[in-house]
Design a protein that fits this description.
It is a single chain. This protein has helices at residues 2-13, 17-50, 56-73, 85-90, 96-108. Helix content is 75%, strand content 0%. The termini are far apart. It has five helices and no strands. With 110 residues, it is mainly α.
């Protein structure tokens, strides 16, 4: 939100220094959001286990989401901008591949 507001004000007022100043704040917030999502994934593993369900269910969910995106966009799922190193810098969630790996590892633990 900070970066968008800075970009709009920079475009309207012609002063891009405010936009440049907001970039570190935005990147910090994105990193915080990714960490919050990792914590939410860990909590999901606990909830699934408490319900006697395998964390592998989340792997299935991500597989189905990737298939739906692939069908909709007619692109291979790994080509998504979120999985690119620059895309992840601006994404609020960890890459799907990392999340699938986390849930797969949790499913393999007992």
């Amino acid at each position: 939100q900070v970066a968008v507001l800075g970009a709009v004000s920079g475009a309207v007022l012609g002063d891009f220094s405010s936009m440049l100043a907001s970039v570190p704040v935005f990147l910090g917030q994105a990193g915080y959001s990714r960490e919050a999502e990792r914590e939410a994934d860990a909590a999901a593993v606990q909830v699934l286990r408490a319900a006697a369900l395998s964390p592998r269910l989340m792997v299935t969910l991500f597989d189905k989401l990737a298939a739906a995106r692939h069908k909709k966009e007619q692109e291979p799922a790994p080509a998504k901008a979120q999985d690119h190193w620059l895309g992840i810098a601006f994404a609020s969630h960890p890459p799907d591949a990392a999340r699938v790996q986390f849930f797969q590892a949790a499913a393999n633990q007992r």
